[in-house]
Structures are given as structure tokens and as C-alpha cells.
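Example complex used in Figure S2.
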Amino acid sequence: MPQVKIPPPYRGPTQGEGRVRVEGANVGECLGALIERYPGLGDLLWGPDHSVHRFVTLFVNGEEIDRTALHTPVSEGDEVEILSAVAGG
Amino acid sequence: MIEGGRAMSGPTGDRMIRVDMTNQSASIEPYPDEWKLLGGRALSARILLGECDPECDPLGPDNVLIMAPGVMSGTAAPTSGRISIGGKSPLTGGIKEANAGGNPGQDLMKLGFRVIVVKGKPSDPNKRYGVEVSEDSVKVVAADDYKAQWNYALIENLSEKYAKTASFISIGPAGEMQLTGASVACTDSAAERRPARHAARGGLGAVMGSKGLKYVAIDPGKARARQPADRKEFAALNKKYTKDYLDGPQMFKTGTSSVVPIANMLFTFPYKNRVEGQSPDAGTLDGKNIVESFESRGGEMHNCMTGCIVKCSNVVHDAEGNYKTSALEFETLTLLGSNCGIASWEDVADLDRLCDELGLDTIETGAAIAIYMDSGAMEFGDAEGAKRILKEIADGTELGRAVGNGAVAIGKKTKHHRVPTVKGQAIPAWDPRPLKATGITYVTSAMGADHTAGLIVNPGMPEKDWVLASQESQMVNAICDSSGFCQFLQPTPDDIRRYYGLLYGEEVSREQIYDQGWQCLSDEWEFNRRAGFTEKDDVMPDCMAKDAIGPANLVWDVSNELPQQAYKRPIARDEFFVVKATG
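Predicted assembly (672 residues):
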């Protein structure tokens, strides 16, 4: 199963879990499975039009992908990473 | 005029400046070699602990004002030119360091000046002075002509007097009036040299004002960047570090204000004096509106200091296309916007400009206005009323002075019960109720409630990890704030020690950098202990425990005993050295 890496600001709904294994053949399916398990992540990831929020950046195996490229295929051992800018004075 | 030796272009032969405002004299001394790896915050703490009576009147002659660039300032390392301002805070009564971008730090370091130490106080409180720093001299000059000038007019006038290459450190009327919310302004890298970068927190502008010091002008002339011992490897590291950053996601490329919507979702976008963690105005206060305004109004993202690759600073224009302010940050949009029930980013831009003009901390001032509103004296959302109050600060009215003196002062004046402060300093946007580890930072940092002292945005973190996370974040940020690197570059301790090693041509070990972080915190805690602080001061205000926010009814429900564990030095973990600074 692919693994999704959760950024620290998003670990409220996951109750501290930073890495979660999910079923999914592409990035969108993995994120969908993640939200099914942790519904609180939905608002943090999806905007009103069900597209990924503009302040979220996605990576697959360390390579940044466009946030609209949810069809990007993933397989066993791949890592989908969610990043979000949360800091600032 | 005191003559000094010619500045060296590298990290050897450094000097320091001492200014005595009692007799308006200045001198140049060699910089101690044993302090070569100390800069910024750590250097400020070391000098204050050694030379400042912690029990002194912060606005009296015995307080010591420090202006200390970070170790890397003035080099070609990216985003490395920050300067720390230090002293005993008139707001908290404890040690304080606040740092800023802009160019003064780099300019001092290009001349080989590692720190300016200002002591004493003129006998005539109506006199104003400036300090002129150039390659060969430092002198104190009369500055009565600039008395009471607002920061932008002051810099415009100073720009006519000094060379185009000069940068400035200054205070506005709030500092001159010794209001405890007063900031110290640094000019940015723009040709106009805007006084838009502020060492804002803790009232250090009041300390500068108490010494009659209106400005410092630093003219680097033709001084070049500081040259590292290992030029080839240093250049290679710069190239790689810059490439890696620019190839990465560049999380702050649209500024800190773009954090608004996610902070709102995390219940850390306080509303109406923190009675709620979310604001209905997050959409209109979202920084994306500012970025979108660039197309029709002008404005841009820019680098506040020469050589910055982060470029998180937004230059904000008004509807007519004229410059209004920079940078309009997340914290300002929160404290002067949402927390006051003010919904328009343009109104917050006006308030931000007024704060920069007067020389005020936008966090402290926003918190104070929100308390005033919450007391019933003014409606939440009254932006014009808030602007009137800021103008009253310049006029020196009783209300203006109370707001200018910060949250606790206005709380006393209005006898209002909800005063969200720790150690007398207003809590910033990042809220300790959802972010418990950040709350541990607020109550244990010698600075009081200060997100730049150790911010941990991890609402799901288990309780067992809070103290260590806070300790490590506090140490990493102390190391960063001593280096001159900006927290938004997010350097790690390994990055910083690597740079130090190439700068000085010697290995800087993990143990050394870890010691430096812990020593900085220890020096600050020791200063506060001698100033009379005890564990009774390490507490959240009642309102954080009583006012629940969000559907989970989040409150500060951490025992007073738990944070005390933060004072025990943790064992260094390998993971520590790759933790990114975050503020």
C-alpha cells in the first residue's frame, strides 16, 4: 500500500499520526481513503469546489506534483507527502 | 569623533561599538575572539547578563540597549542579514530580544562591527541624538531637529543628510514617549529605504527613546560582503542551498498573510479578543487578496534585505496605486484585523502603516485595541475608531498612551478581565489552546508570549511530546536568531553549523551548536531569575483556561507543573539537528 505523510499542522484529525498507509492507485484515491479514515482532514485538504486547497503542496516520492494532478499513479511503497505552509509572523 | 581601525572584509579583526548616552560619547573596541560564534540573540543575552543589572529600571540609565547582527550577516549567504535588538524589556520586566530584517545588520557587519552597546541616559530628556557609523568613525550627533518625527518622514529627511548607501535604525514618536509597546524600525532594501522592518516586541523602542537615541545611521560606503575563510566551499554551499530552496515548494512566496485560511481552520485565527478561534472574516483578510491586488494597484513580493531568496514581504498599495505599507503580515492581519473584528485587509493596511509610522508593535497594539473594544468602550469592527486611537497615541492622550503601553496597560485602564498576555506581553495569533506545545513555549520562554521563540503547529501532538518539542523549537530558534538567518528560510542547526564552519575555516560540531542554543536560553532564564521572575510567572492568563474555542471546546488545561520540565536540559537527539527554524 502507498503511504501518506501528514504534515504536523494536519495531525489534529489523525491524533498525532504522521504516516498512514492507505489503499489507492493514484494520489486522489489515496487522499480520498485518508479522508474516509480521518474525516476531519477533508476541510484541511479540499476547497469548496473539491479541489486541493491552494496552500497545500503535494509530493510523490519527493517530487512535487501539481495539486490538480490527482490522477498521478502510485503503487506499493510509494509515498505521497502533503505539505502546507503554516508559520508566519 | 572616535576614530577606529579600518574594517576588515572578513570575520577576523572584528570590532564592537560602545555608546554612552550620558555624555554622548562613542568608542570602538576589538571584538573578543571567544565571542566569534556569538551573534544576534545569543550575543545580546551574553552581554546583558554580564553588563546589565537585571533589577534596573528598564527606562533608566542602567539598562543596556544592544544592536547585534547575526553571525552570518554581511556575508553572501542567502537571507542572512537579520539584526537583534536587545535589552531589559519595559513591557515584561525581563530580558528581551526582538529581531528584524532590512539592511542595517548587513551594513554593520560589512564594516566589521559585531554589536553596538548603548548605555546611560542624557540628563535632559528633551534632547534627541543620532549615532553615525561609518568605516572609520562612530560619533554621537545632535538630532533635535528630528524630534517627534514619524518614521517615514524621519527616514526621508535622514536620506537627504546621509549617503545613498546608508541604512537606518530608528524610533517613532511612541519610542520617544517611552511607551512600552514601542518598536525599533530598520530600513529595508528598497531604494526608498522604508522603515518597514521592525524589531517590534517587548517595547525596546521605549528603551531606545529613554536614551534619547532617535536613530542610528550606518554607512557601509564601499565595504564589500564579509569574506569567508573557505571561499570556494562557501560559494558552493551558497549555490546548492539557494538552488535547493528555489527548486522546493517556497512555502512563503506569497507571504505569511497567505496562512490566514489554514490558521482559521486550525482555530488559531483569534476573533474579538480571542473569544473565538475562528473568524467569519478569514476570506476578506486572506493574504491572497493582497497578492491579487498587485495586478490592478501595483505592489509586489520583495526581499526586505539584500540577498534574500525567500521574498515573503508584500509591498501593499492603496486603491490609487500608491505605496501604503510593507509587509502586511499574518500576525498583523490577525491582531489588528480579526481580533478587533475588523474585516478589511485595507483597513488593516492603514493600521499597519500607522503602527510603522509611530513605531509600535502591531501584535501588542492590536491586542490592546481588542481589549479596549471588548471592555465595551468601542464596538468591535470599528476600523476608523481604531485608526483614531493610533493617532491619539501620537497626540499623547491618556487613551493613546494606555493603548501604546500595550495589553496589560489598557486592561488596567478599562478594568477589563480578559487580558490575554504571558509575562505582560500579548499572546500572538498562534493560540495555545489548540497548540499546547506552543503554549509551553509561551509560558517558559524568557520573552513571554512570543511565537518566534518556538512555534509548534501540531494540534495532534500527544501530551508526552509537548515539552521536548517546545525545548527543541526554542533552541533551534535561538540558534537561528543568533545566526542572522531568517526563520522563513527555515535553516536547521546542521545548516547553520556548516555555514559557521566555512566562515571560520574550522569544524563546528553538533555539540557546539547544541550548547549554543541551550546556553542562550539559559542566559536569558538566568537574567529573568535575577530580575525576580519565578515559576509563578510561567502561567497562562485565566481567560485561556475559561474561554473555550471551537467545537472541541479547546482551553488551556495544562498543569502549571508540566512546563517546568522545560528548564531541564534535554539529551541531544540526532533529529534535533534537522529541525527547521520556524517563526
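Chain A touches chain B through 24 residues (CB under 8 Å). Residues 24 and 32 of chain A are 8 Å apart (CA to CA).
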